[in-house]
Write a structure and sequence with these properties.
Chain A is α+β, with helices and mostly antiparallel strands and 651 residues long. In chain A, 35% of the residues lie in helices and 11% in strands. Chain A has two domains: 4-94, Roll (PH-domain like), CATH 2.30.29; 112-501, Protein-Tyrosine Phosphatase, Chain A (Alpha-Beta Complex), CATH 3.90.190. In chain A, the strands form three sheets. Chain A has a seven-stranded antiparallel beta sheet with strand order 4-3-2-1-7-6-5, covered by helices on one side. Chain B has 16 helices and four strands. In chain B, strands 1-4-2-3 form a four-stranded parallel beta sheet, with helices on one face. In chain B, helix 6 (141-153) runs antiparallel to helix 7 (160-173), helix 6 packs parallel to helix 9 and helix 9 packs antiparallel against helix 10. Chain B: One of its GO terms (molecular function) is protein phosphatase binding.
Chain lengths: 651, 334
């Protein structure tokens, strides 16, 4: 459709005129005119909702909200076209078959072996080996090899050595969805472990010998532990209410040597609404500080993040400081349990704070343990009540930790943002379906590509320059400060306002430091070579040479500092008073240098935060620097595209 | 950019030829200028009752007046006190923290100050118009706006030396009454009438700029904290007294305080700061000269609570300090 306008959310003055295309996998807006063909690509999988707004004199507005928090406002000249687009998008954004998803047509031009290798990058059996299993206390069990015991669990589960198949099967019958207690994390240093399950079907008074034996087995697997914690991550009221439905929680009287603990994290419906409310705050036009703070508090979002974090901290403490094993569950053991176990693991084990380790962590606690990606993130059209930002919250917990411990993580914020993006994008096969069983049935690994391989290939973009494996922050357990720590939780505008360029610092400190690091390394290598040569020359000539200039001088010649200069930015609309002025626009052109053209080599092109609105000091008045210019900061999903600007997510 | 205090128009709408001529001379024929009045239109009008007022359009035809009320005085001090209380309150739950933060209104003041400074800067840079800034006295919000606008506009004010010069010019010599304003800070039980944290508000705004433009200021947070400390209590004479007259000549004999000849009897903070050892601690390792204007975002998401100041004694800054040490190490190519 031609003559479509793409509006800037805040300033209609910055509307771009162009053509809208709908393909099988994307919505594409191509801006007219300029030599740089600014393109905005949106994957159908990313579309969360489409809103047709009231027709105005200028046309029919269409608002597209995406799961990665991008909001696109289009104005379509003809009402009929608008309606057609609307209907088409509704259908395209709600696939009914897996085969409709992009991952089945995405072609990064790798051969079969490379695809296979990609999938092998993260190997969970290696991970459990790394933890030190099998050992005297824990072993792998094949009781679930055909998914016969629990169809949402993986085929390989790790259980205490003293848990026989009989005990496991018996326990599984007493657990919601058959999700029996299984190992999530084993701490080599003190034999404490984190196990996870779903709620017991205890009702008001039911008991199950095998389930009680299972918990005993877990306790005994820790020779110094005289009790285990059982942590129910639901609010107490909810758990009690579940009893009426024949489920519930562990009674300390029935299970010997357990200490039971509620840590109230709200359910998926509350979280869905919380996110919704927070996004509404983000969509406010020119909010005051008060509007924003009230709105954010009203959404409850940061409170929920803190609740998840507190649960993770409790568990990490139990394991690291008390040396006590913990069994975690919620209702079904695939949402809050996953969040809390992975946060705890991250706090406990520095390996999970490396890039590879993080991928392994997600693969372990989310993918293999049957987190319902399809239902939660809407791969396919389904029940809207199942949708909930569960993994988003976990990812945010990681970001909050990164802000508190800037040296502790090998990866940077962009890594997290891209992972979140791809959980919804369905461009790769890792996060499809609801369980390992479903994925194997669909032969995902033979028909799609692994995100981990893709991220790994581009890992240079995802590194944290402040990370050093020998740094004190990266060793051992992370201990976030507890109370009073409300203030430590910040609003993550890098994620929720990701596409609003004007809100973020125009220059990326991370990228700059990475560039410095790389250059320093190169120079060090060069220096070594030169020093060798020098030594050889000295040996052969026995001459006195002048000192080579010190490495420090060389690094100052890097000239990196100049790279950030030309990234000028433009003023926000600070005052409506100025608009009414007789404008004195200098004759300089509009936005030809509003650069999506990244002129500095050392600036990574993988995210738009460096580009938009970097027009030179041209005196163009009244530009709002909140506009993502033309929205051209979208990840281009098609690896075939090589135009600079569109490849914001280096695919 | 010019600054002044309010014109003494009064209830009788007095005129002053000299004042009109002075402002007239600033502008060329046909040029327009802006007056940014840091009081609300209503407050400015009410000021007439006590002899003050605003510049009437008829007498100053080339000047257009904009009102941008900025908080000062008692309410600003209350805001500060409330914020510090909130930060120290260990009993607040996460559910109520943000609304408590909002009720202090400190961040609102930061947003307003930054917006007004940006407005002044925009008038000059984008509209290429001259700007006159004044409130009532010309010693508080006026200086906040002019100083901040210069940091935004002028790269030389973002160097360590330039920033010191800016402080000397726009705060100290311009007559911000430090002695009255920075007497007891937030914990004092005595609610002094003249106490108000305008200078802290300025430092907070500069901190916001440093966060949004991490490469563009030659100094870091450490300097801002040092300045905050020294404004209230200092081994140096730089922030003493209320104006240049008091510093040079002292007060009238018979008053309780009689400080005089500050330059002869005390040491300068700048001299200490500029020593190589001290200087190094206050520099920003990421600094690289940015010749352009830096336009901050004043959206609520972009304005953050200055944790380094408000939680300074409440939570450990160990991990953040380590991060900065690492940045330093990387940039110096150890």
């Amino acid at each position: 459709v031609e003559n479509v306008r793409l509006l800037d959310r805040l300033s209609s003055r910055k509307a771009a005129l162009g053509t809208l295309y709908l393909t099988a996998t994307h919505v594409i807006f191509v801006e007219n005119g300029s030599e740089t063909r600014k393109e905005t690509w949106v994957l159908h999988s990313q579309i969360s909702s489409i809103e047709k707004q009231a027709t105005t004199a200028t046309g029919c507005p269409l608002l597209i909200r995406c799961k990665n928090f991008q909001v696109i406002q289009l104005v379509i000249p003809q009402e009929r076209d608008c309606h057609d687009i609307y209907i088409s998008l509704i259908r395209l954004a709600r696939p009914v078959k897996y085969e409709e998803l992009y991952c089945f047509s995405f072609n990064p031009k790798l051969d079969k072996e490379e695809r296979e290798q990609g999938w092998k990058l993260v190997d969970l059996s290696e991970e459990y080996n790394r933890m030190g299993i099998p050992n005297n206390y824990w072993q792998i069990s094949d009781v679930n090899r055909d998914y016969g015991v629990c169809d949402s669990y993986p085929t390989e589960v790790y259980v205490p050595k003293s848990a026989t198949a009989h005990i496991i099967v018996g326990s599984s019958k007493f657990r919601s969805r058959r999700r029996f207690p299984a190992l999530s994390y084993f701490c080599k240093d003190n034999n404490a472990s984190i196990c996870r399950s779903s709620q017991p079907l205890s009702g008001f008074s039911a008991r199950c010998l095998e389930d009680e034996q299972m918990l005993q087995a877990i306790r005994k697997a820790n020779p110094r532990g005289d009790f285990i914690y059982v942590v129910d991550t639901r609010p107490k009221l909810n758990a009690i209410a579940n009893r009426a439905a024949g489920k519930g929680y562990e009674n300390e009287d029935n299970y010997s040597n357990i200490k039971f603990q509620f840590i109230g994290i709200e359910n998926i419906h509350v979280m869905r609404n919380s996110l919704q409310k927070m996004l509404e705050v983000c969509e406010l036009k020119s909010p005051s500080m008060s509007d924003f703070l009230w709105g954010l508090e009203n959404s409850g979002w940061l409170k929920h993040i803190k609740a998840i974090m507190d649960a993770g901290i409790f568990i990490a403490k139990a394991v690291a400081e008390e040396g006590v094993s913990v069994l975690v569950h919620c209702s079904d053991g695939w949402d809050r349990t996953a969040q809390v176990c992975s946060v705890a693991s991250l706090l406990l084990d520095p390996y999970y704070r490396t890039m590879k380790g993080f991928m392994v962590l997600i693969e372990k606690d989310w993918v293999s343990f049957g987190h319902k990606f399809n239902h939660r993130y809407g791969n396919l059209d389904g029940d809207p009540k199942e949708i909930s930002p569960v993994i988003d919250q976990f990812i945010e917990c990681v970001w909050q930790l990164m802000e508190q411990f800037p040296c502790a993580f090998e990866f940077n914020e962009r890594f997290l943002i891209h992972i979140q993006h791809h959980i919804y994008s369905c461009q790769f096969g890792n996060f499809l379906c609801n369980s390992q069983k479903e994925r194997r049935e669909l032969k995902i690994q033979e028909r799609t590509y692994s995100l981990w391989a893709h991220l790994w290939k581009n890992r240079a973009d995802y590194l944290n320059p402040l990370y050093r494996s020998d740094h004190s922050q990266t060793q051992g357990t992370l201990r976030p400060q507890m109370a009073p720590c409300n203030f430590l939780y910040k609003f993550w505008s890098g994620m929720y306002n990701r596409f609003e360029k004007g809100l973020h610092p125009r220059q990326s400190v991370t990228d700059y430091l990475m560039a410095v690091k790389e250059e320093t390394q190169q120079l060090e290598e060069e220096l070594e070579i030169l020093q060798e040569r020098l030594a050889n020359l000295q040996k052969s000539q026995l001459d006195d040479d002048k000192d080579k200039s010190k490495q420090q001088d060389q690094s100052k010649q890097l000239g990196l500092s100049n790279s950030s200069n030309s990234l000028a930015n433009t003023p926000q609309e600070y005052s409506s008073d100025l608009k009414s002025f007789p404008s004195r626009s200098p004759s300089q052109g509009d936005e030809e240098d509003s650069a999506l053209i990244l002129t500095q080599d050392n600036l990574k092109s993988s995210d738009p935060d460096l580009s938009a609105n970097s027009d030179q000091e041209s005196g163009v008045e009244d530009l709002s620097c909140r506009s993502p210019s033309g929205g051209g900061c979208l990840p281009s999903e098609d690896s075939g595209k090589d135009s600079d600007e569109a490849v914001f997510l280096a695919v | 950019m010019l600054r002044s205090s309010q014109p003494l128009t009064g209830a009788n709408r007095k005129r002053c030829r000299e004042d009109e001529m002075l402002l007239g001379m600033v502008l060329d024929e046909g040029e327009r200028g802006f007056i940014i009045d840091t009081r609300s239109a209503q407050a400015a009008k009410q000021a007439r009752m006590t002899g003050g007022g605003t510049e009437p359009k008829s007498s100053y035809p080339q000047w257009r007046r904009l009102h941008r009320p900025l908080e000062r005085g008692r309410p600003l001090q209350e805001s500060f006190i409330k914020l510090v209380e909130a930060c120290n309150d260990t009993s607040i739950n996460m559910d109520r923290w943000l609304s408590r933060l909002e009720s202090c209104r400190w961040l609102n003041h930061v947003k307003a100050a930054l917006s007004t400074a940006c407005l002044a800067a925009q008038c000059m840079d984008r509209e290429e118009a001259s700007v006159l800034v004044h409130g009532a006295e010309g010693t508080d919000t006026t200086l906040l706006v002019t100083a901040l606008a210069q940091v935004i506009l002028d790269p030389s004010c973002r160097t360590l030396a330039g920033f010191q010069g800016l402080l000397e010019r726009e705060w100290i010599e311009a007559g911000h009454p430090f002695h009255l304003r920075c007497a007891r800070s937030a914990y004092s039980h005595a609610r002094l009438k003249q106490e108000a944290p305008l200078f802290l508000l300025f430092l907070d705004c500069v901190w916001q700029l440093s966060r949004q433009f991490p490469f563009s200021l030659e100094f870091g947070e450490h300097l801002l904290l040092t300045l905050f400390d020294n404004a209230y209590a200092s081994a140096y004479g730089t922030f003493l007294c209320n104006n240049e007259k008091e510093r040079r000549v002292g007060r009238e004999a018979g008053t309780a305080l009689c400080l005089c000849k500050v330059k002869e009897s005390t040491h300068s903070l700048w001299a200490w700061l500029n020593q190589p050892g001290e200087k190094k601690k206050h520099l920003n390792p990421l600094y690289s000269h940015n010749a352009l204007v830096i336009w901050p975002s004043v959206e609520p998401q972009s304005i953050q609570l200055w944790q380094g100041l408000f939680f300074r004694w409440i939570r450990s800054s160990q991990y953040l300090d380590e991060a900065w040490a690492e940045v330093q190490r990387l940039v110096e190519g150890d």
